[in-house]
Design goal:
The complex is a heterodimer of chains A (about 475) and B (about 140). Chain A has 14 helices and 19 strands. In chain A, strands 7, 8, 9, 11, 15, 16, 18 and 19 form an eight-stranded mixed beta sheet that branches. Chain A has a seven-stranded mixed beta sheet with strand order 1-2-3-4-5-13-12, sandwiched between helices. Chain A has a two-stranded antiparallel ribbon with strand order 6-10. In chain A, β1 and β2 form a beta hairpin. In chain A, α7 packs antiparallel against α9. The two termini of chain A are about 30 Å apart. With about 140 residues, chain B is of the alpha+beta class. Chain B has a single domain, classed as Archease domain (Archease, Possible Chaperone, Chain: A, domain 1, 3-Layer(bab) Sandwich). Chain B starts with a strand and ends with a strand. Classes of the chains: A alpha+beta (about 475), B alpha+beta (about 140). Chains A and B meet through α7, α9 and α11 of A and α2, β6 and β7 of B.
Chain lengths: ~475, ~140
């Protein structure tokens, strides 16, 4: 693959935190491309990733810009860390604009306790969690759901599980989309996808998925922290995972369908993995309904992991308090949303791939308790590094109310595994007081912090660009890597 | 001739595959993918699986073939080390897969991607392709 060479001088500097490649840069661009980054981070972005942001600018029906966040890196078709909105109803929808792990996302559970109070119990807690929540790699739950039960989760997500005695009513309210996209239709999801998902509800999966015990290390915004229920030294639990094999299969299935269907809509694209069809075409509608169902499955997955974590909590600590869900956000998803474009309200199909929604204060689609502050935004760091809670702002309107999703890799898994041993990484983390649980030390080496961009720098960009405001910084106390 | 080579890639798994003919290329791609999964096998043989695929072109056929094999691997917890093509063309194939039952896998492959996939015959008349897997 040859990449058109792009240098800093090809960019127009919109601000210290925003860079634009004009539409005139390449003949097939329908809109400019914009990347949120500091100059230093911009220079770190590989040419292939920038090429992908430019490629997305060629999508039929794309509105205003092809956007990328400061943690962006090369993906399939769309860059990871990319955002693109297309005109409803006939602009395109593209599976590559969501990703294979449909509704990969993050949630944060809050305890009532400080690190000091829980330190003596940490090892016991994390051991209990590792026992209750299978990490993955074929480590599915002993329990295998029937296809009928999988269908229920596909269509009704979190509310179905709460109705059946798992979790609390508040868990519905504090989840993006209330844990259920109503467009979901289980009939649009293949038997193959459902079969892959039968024994994976309540499992973490592998790679960079994790469950982490963290503490609130620093507070940037006291008022918002108070509304969110966060206090200094508080112990919290972050869960990062997605739709597992079901979502991966669903995306694979529809990429195949859509690649075949594209021919009849005479859509030509610079990259096969940008395969797309008009949203209101039969294929586009089926994909959206199937994607919505897979997203419900992912919310169901994170909801069930929370249920098992709460169980582990009680096992380790007795009846010592509850774990409250702060919020759950998706970072691989497409939504139909109303936005203002050049003074006019219009509906758009917003693709967020490795990018997190960040609604502002008073937005109708956020929980009542957060209307005064804005939506909680959760940004996981890489293993052993900080994570953040941010809050949505009105300024983020320019990015369809979206921010980054994490840190982004800079080093290959092989290079990381060669550069450092799993044991050395564990020792280093332990020397900083962090407990690590993982079934394989190779998995640990591949996820070493040095293999990722600096999350502090990534978050600083979205904060300085005004897309979201920092509320608290979280530091890890104990990690379970999915493996 | 090497069957396949696992290459460096930032976030994913990249395998370069070779074959004297297209069928052998496909066979070696399956071997490469299977090897990357680092399966711990059991003594029990897997029941033979017959698959039929129709795709828009040869590249899509390779991705669809590997995707189907990956699906069967994950759902049946098996790994396939033998493949016999009953029918094979640029757009269609029918194959029988044989292998072993698996106790656990050492790697999780989420999907087979089309990213940068270009199947070509090199100057030595060997077919080659580089496939990217999402892990």
């Amino acid at each position: 693959m040859n990449f058109q060479s792009i240098s800093i001088s090809d960019f127009i500097k919109v601000s210290d935190w925003l860079w634009e490649i004009p539409q005139s840069f390449r003949g097939d661009m329908r809109v400019p491309a914009r990347i949120y980054a500091s100059e230093a981070l911009l220079e770190e972005i590989e040419p292939e990733a920038i090429e992908q942001v430019i490629n997305v600018a060629s999508l039929p029906g794309i509105v205003k810009y092809s956007l990328a966040m400061p943690d962006c890196h090369t993906g399939y078709g769309f860059v990871i860390g990319g955002v693109a909105a297309t005109r409803y109803p006939d602009g395109v929808i593209s599976p590559g604009g969501i990703g294979y792990d449909e509704n990969c996302g993050v949630r944060l559970l809050l305890s009532e306790y400080s690190e000091k109070e829980l330190r003596p119990y940490l090892d016991k807690l994390i051991t209990e969690i590792q026992t209750e929540v299978p990490s993955g790699l074929g480590r599915g739950r002993q329990m295998k759901l029937s296809i009928g039960q999988v269908d229920k989760i596909l269509e009704d997500g979190v509310p179905y599980l709460v109705e059946n005695g798992y979790g609390e009513k508040e868990d519905i309210e504090n989840c993006e989309e209330r844990g259920r996209m109503e467009e979901a239709d289980a009939l649009c999801v293949s038997e193959r996808a459902k079969n892959r998902g039968r024994d994976q509800v309540g499992t973490l999966g592998s790679g960079n998925h994790f469950c982490e015990l963290q503490k609130v290390a620093e507070i940037f915004d006291e008022k918002v922290a108070q509304v969110f229920g966060l206090f200094k030294e508080q112990v919290v639990i972050m869960i990062h995972t997605g739709s597992r094999g079901l979502g991966h299969q669903n995306c694979t299935d529809y990429l195949r369908t859509i690649m075949q269907a594209m021919l009849k809509y005479k859509i030509q694209l610079p990259d096969r993995e940008l395969a797309c069809v008009p949203f209101n075409s039969p294929e586009g509608q089926r994909f959206f309904k199937a994607m919505s169902a897979a997203c419900n499955y992912a919310w169901g997955n994170r909801h069930m992991i929370s249920h098992y974590v709460r169980k582990a909590w009680k096992n380790a600590l007795g009846e010592k308090g509850n774990l409250r869900l702060l919020y759950d956000v998706a970072h691989n998803i497409a939504k139909v949303e109303e936005h203002e474009v050049d003074g006019q309200k219009m509906e758009l199909i917003v693709h967020r791939k490795g990018a997190t929604r960040a609604f502002p204060p008073n937005h109708p689609d956020i929980p009542e308790r957060y209307k005064a502050t804005g939506q909680p935004v959760l940004i996981p760091g890489s293993m052993g590094t900080s994570s953040y809670v941010l809050v949505g702002t009105e300024k983020s309107k320019e990015a369809w109310y979206t921010v980054c999703h994490g840190a982004g890799r800079t080093m290959s898994r092989h290079a990381a595994a060669r550069a450092v041993s799993g044991e050395a990484v564990v020792k280093n983390l332990q020397s900083r007081g962090i407990i690590v649980k993982c079934w394989s030390s190779r998995g640990i080496a591949e996820e070493a912090p040095m293999a990722y961009k600096d999350v502090d720098k990534v978050v600083e960009v979205v904060h300085q660009a005004g897309l979201s405001r920092k509320v608290v910084k979280l530091k890890p106390l104990a990690v379970i890597k999915g493996e | 001739m090497k069957k396949y080579k696992i290459l460096e890639n930032k976030a994913n798994l990249k395998i370069q595959v070779f074959g004297r003919m297209k069928e052998e290329l496909f066979k070696n791609a399956l071997s490469g993918m299977a090897s990357a999964l680092r399966a711990e096998t059991e003594n029990e043989k897997a029941k033979a699986k017959r698959i039929t695929i129709e795709s828009v072109d040869l590249s899509a056929l390779l991705v669809d073939f590997l995707s189907e094999a990956l699906y069967l691997i994950q759902v049946h917890k098996e790994i396939y080390n033998e493949v016999r093509f009953i029918e094979f063309s640029d757009n269609e194939l029918t194959a029988e897969l044989n292998g072993q039952k698996v106790e656990r896998f050492g790697e999780d492959i989420k999907a087979v991607t089309h990213h940068g996939l270009d199947i070509r015959e090199n100057k030595k008349g060997i077919w080659e392709a580089t496939i990217l897997f999402d892990i």
